[in-house]
Amino acid sequence: MRGLLVGRMQPVHEGHLDVIKRILNEVEEVIIGIGSAQLSHTLKDPFTAGERVMMLTKALTENGVPASSYYIIPIEDIICNSVWVAHVKMLTPPFKHVYSGNPLVQRLFVEAGYQVTEPPLFNREIYSGTEVRRRMLQGEDWEALVPDSVLEVIEEIEGISRLNHLSKKEVKE
Ligand code: NAD
Fold this sequence. Notes:
The chain has helices spanning 14-26, 49-62, 84-91, 103-111, 129-138, 148-156, 159-172; strands at 2-7, 29-34, 70-74, 97-99, 115-117. By secondary structure, it is α/β, with parallel strands linked by helices. The chain has a single domain, classed as Rossmann fold (3-Layer(aba) Sandwich). It has a five-stranded parallel sheet, sandwiched between helices. Helix 2 (49-62) links the parallel strand 2 and strand 3. The longest helix is centred in the N-terminal third of the chain and has 14 residues, at 49-62. The structure holds nicotinamide-adenine-dinucleotide. Nicotinamide-adenine-dinucleotide binds next to strand 1, helix 1 and helix 4.
C-alpha cells in the first residue's frame, strides 16, 4: 500500500521526519509531495523545491530510511482548489491513503473519496517551519530543530544569509 504526505517543508524539520517514519509503519511506500514548489526567496518560502528535495533526501538517508520506500515529488500550487487533487494525482504514483494535518488538504482529499488520516503532531510548538524560520532570523538556536543533514544543506546554500538579505528587502518595500 502507498500513502501520500504533502508539505511545504520550509525547511524540513524533525516533525516532518517523525511523521514520515510513522507513515512508513502503516504503508510500504510513502509519496512525499513538496508543496508550493514554485515558491522560493521569500521570508515564508525561502527555499527552492530543489533545495527542499535535497534536504529531505539527505535527512531520510541520515535516518536510515531506505530510498526504495519513498518518492519525493515537487508539486506546484494551482489556482483552483476544486481540481487540486486531480493535479496531485497527475504528478504522483497511485496512492490510497492521505496523511495531513492541514484542514484544506484533508477536505479536498475527503471530498475526492480518499481515506485521510491526521497524524499526531510531534512537539508542534517548536517543530514547525514558522518557528525554525523565526529563529533563523532572530539568531536563535534553530539548528536543534532540524536533522544535521538539513543543517549542512542550509549552510551549503547560505540559507541564513539569504533570509537576512530578504528581510531587509521586505522591510524596504
Ligand atoms: P507543512 O510543511 O506545514 O506540513 C506538512 C505535514 O507535515 C502536516 O500536514 C503534518 O501532517 C506534518 N507535520 C508538520 N509539523 C509536524 C510536527 N511537528 N509533528 C508531526 N507532523 C508534522 O505543509 P502544509 O502547509 O500542510 O502543506 C500543504 C501544501 O499543499 C502547501 O504547499 C499548499 O500550498 C498545498 N496545497 C495547494 C493547493 C492548491 O494548489 N490549490 C490546495 C491545497 C494545498
